[in-house]
Design a protein that fits this description.
The complex is a heterodimer of chains A (164) and B (530).
Chain A lengths: L1 H9 L1 H27 L6 H5 L6 H9 L1 H24 L3 H18 L21 H14 L8 H10 L1
Helix pairs in contact in A: 2-5, 2-7, 4-5, 5-6, 6-7
Chain B lengths: L1 H20 L2 H24 L2 H6 L15 E6 L3 H9 L5 H13 L5 H6 L6 E7 L3 H12 L13 E2 L3 H5 L6 E4 L3 H13 L3 E4 L7 H14 L3 E3 L7 H11 L6 E9 L22 H5 L10 H8 L11 H17 L6 E7 L12 E8 L4 E8 L8 E5 L2 E5 L11 E5 L7 H5 L10 E3 L12 H8 L5 E3 L2 E3 L1 H15 L7 H20 L3 E4 L4 E2 L1
Parallel strand pairs in B: 1-2, 1-4, 2-3, 4-5, 5-6, 7-10
Antiparallel strand pairs in B: 7-11, 8-9, 8-17, 9-10, 11-12, 12-13, 13-14, 15-16, 17-18
Helix pairs in contact in B: 4-17, 9-10, 10-18, 11-14, 14-18
Classes of the chains: A mainly alpha (164), B alpha/beta (530).
């Protein structure tokens, strides 16, 4: 990682670009999470009910079981919030990038925009195979591969205090 | 030197700290925006309908009376609808419980079986069965014996009666469900009332206007508990809609549009002719006894027996079957009562299969004293989901969108751009006519003053069930329960003879207008159509 760090450090443009990407994705996750926490009527049921492809069976199992649905709702709202805060502040952001990537890949796989799959929910864009979930997942992969929290972010204070 | 290095050290530390905390202000910015967003949403809600949501909840499922007195019921007419009503009372055939439990096993989202089994035990027995078709009568007997049911095992099993008068002669029967074709409703219900039985009668109330008058008078005279089969009276959405309308949130309402949109042979009453239906299994002579035109038993008679809604001899077509539901739903929400005038036109434009009831039919009802027109439009050859619309000066309510039935499952309220009541809030942008100011979509946890395109979509999607305290319930079960509870405590059920009479007169006015080709006026003093 040292080598990568020095190359990033050497190119401010790269560093600031990666930090900006991290902060923006963090912001997005944080609001997605908080908006679900503060809305007492939010449920993952609607999204799951419309699931197609390989996870549609699992989605139906979750929706038909109130306990599983409750867990799914809880995990989603709090994971999104914590991953968001972590990326935004640069605290343990390398791990949260990985966790966030996992979640977004799941969202993609539960409802992929593949040919022949029709969704009853109105879409907010036009997609074929690639959608914004897939792109965000890849962006989180980049953030995992090029961590910046220990350069600009709270991770920097943690690593410094450890080395002291 | 040491001062310099200290200075450098401090600078380093400060730089470290700055780099560590560099993105914290972004979190601050986020929180400020979040705070503003929450405040704005709260303001929107409080400005719109926030109080309404909590104000009145629908009645609970359990009224606590069902265990007080055991009631013996009889069913007269165990066809498609009759069997559903008896399921609502807690009795289903073994064939039905086997099929739906298998469906539930195959598809976890199929809740039909679970919903049936979680019905309240209404503490009643099905003891009498009467149907002119042997197959149906046997199915009803089977339902009375099936132990797969909500609550305890059946306490008694049913006896079959060939003629409804024999069933009514059984003194052990407290109440009867009348689910025959419409041409038998008034005679059976009147005889039942005279025999002291409480009556649940399917809609439309009667086949003719005169029959409605006779039935109304008999029910009033005998004092029995009468319930008409408009289960929409139990639908939570209708009660919410009523609260909104009662509070004047739509402003003055001058036009209401209700609609039927169906596009299948089944929807047009071209129902299957049972392979076991023949001269031996069907009591055809009794069936057609009250009808104006008599047909000898044969192919035509079989069609008429199984597809009776297609002929004025046995019913009133769209009027008694579908207008009646939607009319009653509007009467439930707005208490409009009987109109002053009705006129209707239509024709047989798609199903030229020998029927004499129209398949495209439009009716208008005028309420001069309420400054209101009610417009009904029906087609049996298009599924275009028009839904029902209550159009106010300040806001409009769009309900449902599914074909048939008056059970409104969800609705949205949208402000009018020229509204007087909401003028200031429209100008300040708190209310936007592009988005609903109120959305009610049962079961999807979407009761929310601030809505998105997604929740709007769900509001328009019909659901088969209604909800009580978040629990899914079949409104037909609630309607039967409401009737039995009312019998026990002497109260009036929700679709009692008064509102049933409104429905009957309004529908008959429209039917007569079509048949006579002129506008029909209601004379409330002499109780006549002029």
């Amino acid at each position: 990682m040292r080598q990568l760090d020095s190359s990033i450090m050497a190119n401010r443009c790269q560093l600031y670009g990666l930090v900006t990407l991290r902060v923006l994705i963090g912001w997005h996750f944080l609001y997605e999470g908080i908006s679900k926490i503060i809305n007492p009527y939010w449920s993952s049921a609607a999204y799951l009910l419309d699931s197609k492809w390989i996870f549609s069976g699992l989605a139906k199992t979750i929706v038909s079981n109130p306990n599983l649905l409750g867990i799914s709702d809880f995990v989603n709202m709090w994971a999104l919030t914590l991953v968001g805060a972590s990326l935004l502040l640069g605290l343990f952001s390398r791990y949260s990038a990985l966790v966030g990537m996992g979640f977004v890949i799941l969202y993609f796989l539960f409802a992929p925009p593949f040919l022949g799959l029709e969704y009853s929910r109105p879409g907010e864009g036009s997609y074929i195979i690639v959608n914004k979930n897939l792109i965000e997942a890849c962006a989180l992969w980049v953030l995992y591969a090029f961590p910046t929290g220990h350069l600009i972010g709270l991770d920097r204070l943690l690593t410094k205090s450890e080395s002291n | 030197m040491s001062e310099n290095s200290n200075q450098q050290n401090n600078d380093m530390k400060r730089r470290e700290l700055l780099k560590g905390l560099a993105t914290v202000p972004v979190l601050g910015l986020f929180l400020v925006n979040l705070w503003q967003k929450i405040r704005r949403d709260t303001l929107k809600k409080s400005n719109i309908l926030a109080n309404l949501v909590q104000e009145k909840s629908a009645p609970a499922v359990v009224k606590g009376l069902s265990d007080s007195r055991h009631l013996n019921i009889g069913i007269i007419g165990y066809g498609g609808r009759g069997s559903h009503l008896i399921r609502g009372a807690g009795f289903a055939t073994k064939g039905w419980t086997d099929t739906v439990s298998e469906n539930a096993r195959k598809n976890k989202l199929d809740k039909q079986f679970a919903t049936f089994m979680s019905q309240e035990d209404l503490n009643c027995s099905l003891v009498g069965v009467c149907d002119l078709f042997d197959v149906n009568a046997e199915l009803a007997m089977n339902a009375s014996q099936n132990e797969v049911r909500p609550g305890v095992k059946p306490q008694a099993t049913a006896t079959r009666y060939r003629h409804y008068t024999e069933l009514l002669a059984n003194d052990n029967i407290d109440a009867v469900v009348v689910a025959t074709p419409d041409h038998w409703h008034s005679r059976i219900a009147i005889d039942a009332a005279k025999a002291g039985k409480h009556v649940y009668c399917e809609k439309g109330l009667t086949r003719t206007f005169d029959e409605a008058i006779d039935l109304y008078d008999t029910v009033k005279k005998t004092g029995i508990t009468f319930q008409l089969g408009h289960q929409n009276r139990q639908v939570e959405a209708n009660e919410k809609a009523k609260q909104i309308i009662d509070q004047g949130l739509l402003g003055p309402i001058n036009l209401v549009e209700i609609a039927t949109n169906r596009n299948s042979p089944w929807g047009a009453w071209v129902w299957g002719i049972h392979p076991k239906g023949n001269k031996k299994t069907i009591d055809w002579d009794t069936f057609q006894e009250p009808s104006p035109n008599k047909v000898p038993f044969g192919e035509e008679a079989l069609k008429r027996f199984f597809r009776w809604r297609c002929w004025f001899d046995y019913g009133t077509g769209l009027s008694g079957d579908l207008l009646s539901h939607d009319f009653d739903a509007i009467n439930q929400m707005m208490e409009i009562g009987i109109p002053k005038y009705a006129s209707s036109t239509g024709g047989i434009y798609f199903y030229k299969d020998g029927r004499d009831v129209p398949d495209v039919w439009n009716a208008t009802f005028e309420y001069p004293d309420k400054d209101l027109t009610l417009l009904y439009s029906a087609t049996l050859s298009s599924n275009n989901p028009r839904g029902n619309r209550i159009m106010g000066h300040d806001a409009s309510m769009q309900m449902g969108g599914q074909s048939g039935g008056g059970s409104v499952h969800g609705f949205i309220v949208t402000a009018d751009s020229e509204s007087t009541q909401y003028k200031d809030r429209l100008n300040s942008g708190i209310i936007n006519t592009r988005y609903p100011i109120y959305t009610y979509s049962p079961g999807s946890k979407q009761i929310d003053g601030v809505t998105s395109a997604t929740s709007r979509y769900f509001a328009n999607k019909g659901l088969l069930y209604t909800y009580r305290e978040g629990k899914r319930v079949d409104p037909t079960h609630l309607h039967i329960k409401d009737w039995l509870d009312s019998i026990r405590d002497g109260s009036q059920p929700k679709c009692n003879i008064e509102v049933a009479f409104h429905e009957a007169v309004a529908c008959h006015m429209a039917t007569e207008s079509y048949l006579q080709g002129r506008r029909i006026e209601w004379d409330p003093v002499n109780r006549k159509l002029i």
